[in-house]
Amino acid sequence: MGLEFSIVPAVRIFRGIMICDGDIIAILKKFRVWSFGGIVHHLLPNVDLLSSYGISIDLIRKHLVKKPLPFLRKPETFKNMVIRVEKRLGISHDSPLFLYGIHLVSSFTEENIESKFRMFKRFGWTQSDVENYIMKNTSCFTISEASIKKKMEFLMNELGLDPAYLIAHTLLLTCSLEKRVVPRHKVLSILKEKGLMKKIPTLITVLRLSEPNFVTRFVLPFEEVHEVYVKHTGCSIKTLAKQSADSLL
């Protein structure tokens, strides 16, 4: 297939919706030549549909550059996706979450999405809570329900954290519960109970630290936490000390 019948028309269409050449190149690299037909025949009708819903071209461009594939579906398929976002996910077309919903329904089955929504709601989350969390962390749909359930039971039932806090700090549900969240929580609890530090940081603060950094600051200096941290991480203090030392080289 010649350039005149593949790449060139695609580039013209992207330029027509004011996408800069640098972003156009990045988008085209994600596709094979034979798939450029989707750009030529499908993109503009789909963009027009979104525009008819009152979605700004600036917002459409932002999502198109980041994840172009959903916007290149056949217009009929894309229209059904738009309907699913409103009817099934309950996200209005005038919501800033709407295009995130497009990405979701293009990547996951309806059954998978609804099952995830039900799981969150069992922990007292509202529809709005789930939608806001999705906007900040669409990757939550790639995590198994069993894993999310286990994390929610610990974070909400044991630590007493509410949906608003988890929405504001999405890292809490994406970190490994067994390898990161629980061990660091246990360390902070001991440091607080024994008065070993004047000011105890929050769990979310220490979750942002690299393993060597956390160990250097909150584990190695305090023998009282060595046993519990070794128990939960499976690493010896000698190994942890070496890893921390190596990270400083």
Task: Summarize the structure in words.
By secondary structure, the chain is an all-alpha fold. The protein has helices at residues 7-16, 21-28, 36-52, 57-66, 75-87, 98-107, 110-121, 127-136, 145-158, 163-168, 171-174, 177-193, 203-207, 211-219, 226-233, 237-247. The chain is built from 16 helices and no strands. The protein starts with 6 loop residues before the first helix and ends with a helix. Belongs to the mTERF family. GO terms for molecular function: nucleic acid binding. InterPro entries: MTERF (IPR003690), MTERF_sf (IPR038538). It holds the Pfam family mTERF.
Shape: elongated
Distance between the first and last residues' Cα: 53 Å
Main sheet overview: none
| Rg measurement, Å | 24 Å
Q: Low-confidence parts, pLDDT < 50 over ≥5 residues?
A: 1-5
Order of helices and strands: HHHHHHHHHHHHHHHH
Name the structural class.
mainly alpha
| Number of helical stretches of at least 4 residues | 16
The proportion of strand residues reads under 5%
List how many beta strands DSSP finds: 0
Integer average pLDDT: 87
- Helix share of residues? 55-70%
